[in-house]
Amino acid sequence: MDKPYSTHYQIRSSEADCFGRLTLNHLLEFMQESAGQNCEQEGWGRSELMKRGLFWAVIRQKVSITRLPSAMETIRVDTWPMPVTRTAFPRATMAYDERGNELFRAIGLWIVMDYENRKMVLPAKCGLDVPGLLTGLEMTPPGSIVPRELANQELRQVRYSELDWNGHMNNCRYLDWVTDVLPAEFQRAHQPKSFTVAYASEAREGERLAVDWELSTQGELSVEIRRQEEIPGKGRVFGARLQY
Questions:
Q1: CA 109 to chain centre
Q2: Cα–Cα distance measured from residue 212 to residue 231, given in angstroms and rounded to the nearest whole number
Q3: 3-class state of residue 155 by DSSP
Q4: How do residues 98-108 score in pLDDT, each as one tens digit?
Q5: Residue 202: which residues within 8 A CB-CB, separation 6 or more?
Q6: Structure confidence at residue 231 (pLDDT)
Q7: What is the predicted pLDDT for the residue at 135?
Q8: Which end of the chain is more exposed for a tag (fewer CB within 10 A), N or C?
């Protein structure tokens, strides 16, 4: 690629929250759809990977938000693959409003998985030629999120509507679980400024998971989703840190 892949989305009312702002779940969906379209165009999309018994999976994402767009706004999303590392395929994303103002920027670490054994396949062994691009707008890759004990807990079960075509809970839907721990009145007064998420293991339909969370006095929301029979830091499914 010699330039970013661009696409436009008009935000539907179903993609906005009760205050008319784009939800974080759908923000990640725009990133995911743009990445998927770009990969298909370049010859390393899902259809090609499935022929080889492989699929794409994201393991970490970091997003910096200038403004969450509103329902009925049209936004432009630019995405491009960065140079491949030993273990992952980093991907950058930028989003702009109709006047060209930045809305958010992001970086995700993508890996290739074997569909049958659900294990990671290193870039050097998966047979994909993904040329990387650097524009100067890229964020630094997200670091690890260290699990820790959190003050609050609720239980939630993975439902059919939350599954994607890889048979597990869609990575975007975890953001619904994250933002649902805080009430609408808090959300009305606070827009997230940034967030980092880490995906540790797959969640399947019917699993009942513990959602541990805590909001600091500095406005950082920490969330850990894990299999509830495990001790904190074990059996981890997902972790997130949001800054309000």
A1: 10
A2: 12
A3: strand
A4: 999 999 999 99
A5: 118, 168, 169, 237
A6: 59
A7: 97
A8: N
Q: Rounded to whole angstroms, how far apart are CA atoms 4 and 21? A: 26
- Burial class from Cβ neighbours inside 10 Å (0-12, 13-18, 19+) for residue 110 reads buried
Please state, in angstroms and rounded to a whole number, the distance separating the CA atoms of residues 207 and 117.
Answer: 20
**Closest to 207 (Cα-Cα) out of 152, 156, 154:** 156
Secondary structure of residue 129 in the 3-state scheme: coil
Query: Could you tell me the CA-to-CA distances from 120 to 88, 123, 229 in Å, in that order?
Result: 10, 9, 26
Chain-centre distance for alpha carbon 114: 20
Among 50, 232, 44, residue whose Cα is nearest residue 150? 232
Question: CA end-to-end span of the chain, whole Å?
Answer: 35
pLDDT digits (tens, 9 = 90+) for 109-138: 999 999 899 899 999 999 888 999 999 999
Q: CA 34, CA 127: separation in Å to the nearest integer?
A: 22
Residues of the chain with pLDDT under 70: 229-234
Identify the H or E element spanning 146: none
